[in-house]
Amino acid sequence: MSTKNERSSYRKKTYKIALIAMFTALTAIGAFIRIPVPVIPFTLQIFFTTMAGLLLGGELGALAVGMYVILGLLGVPIFTGGGGFTYIFQPSFGYIIGFIVGAFVTGKLSQKEKPGFWRLLIANFAGLLFIYLFGLVHCYLIYSFYLKNPMAIGTLLLHGFVMCLPADTIKMVLAALVGQQLIPILRKKD
Q1: Which domain holds residue 154?
Q2: Is there a domain that residue 119 lies in?
Q3: Total count of domains within the chain
Q4: 97-113: buried (b, 16+ CB within 10 Å) or exposed (e) per residue?
Q5: Is residue 158 included in any domain, yes or no?
Q6: In what helix (H) or strand (E) does residue 48 lie, and over which residues does it extend?
Q7: Least C-beta-crowded within 10 Å: which of 18, 108, 123, 173?
């Protein structure tokens, strides 16, 4: 017969596994919630990867997003443009890797019993910075060495950063607002 502590520990583990699976699924769904804008598709992936970091913490948030990446690389068509291992050669794949790091950074910087809006917003933007960093570097490398069609740094920054920043800023603010409400509720269950 299991003790009360063992049952409680089992429930907590089950709860965490369910949250990880939920954020893996939400990230996949976020790839297909698109608002058509020129050049860069506006999706909700960054919102959900940021929320994974905020609500699950650094390690579990990165794990949830990492599971999304693994499923996509295994061939499940959950990336914005499909799936499969060859997706690593897509110019936008660096952003997907950046999602993992971004969730980790956001989660680590927001870990506090009841973080305030500004702390969450700073954590969100720190995670976003890593998403952009990985995305821009990978995009530059793919265009320069794989596609053999080097992109000017100014063009890269315009299309991969400047044009994305307004929509991503809105997502970061929304994630901070939602996180501020949900973090106290979820952390009570830990």
Answers
A1: 19-188
A2: yes
A3: 1
A4: bbbbbbbbbbbbbbbee
A5: yes
A6: helix 45-56
A7: 18
| pLDDT tens-digit profile, the chain (190 residues) | 568 888 888 888 999 999 999 999 999 999 998 877 655 667 899 999 999 999 999 999 999 999 999 999 999 999 988 999 999 999 999 999 999 999 999 999 998 778 899 999 999 999 999 999 999 999 999 999 999 999 999 999 999 999 999 999 999 999 999 999 999 888 776 6
CA angle 170, 173, 175 (to 5 degrees): 105
Instruction: Tell me whether residue 4 is in a domain.
Output: no
Asked if residue 13 belongs to a domain, the reply is no
Read off the amino acid at residue 52: A
Residue 99 and residue 106: Cα distance in Å, rounded?
Answer: 10
Whole-angstrom Cα distance, residue 136 to residue 139? 5
Q: Specify burial of residue 48 (Cβ count, 10 A radius: 0-12, 13-18, 19+).
A: buried
Which CATH number do you get for residue 56?
1.10.1760.20
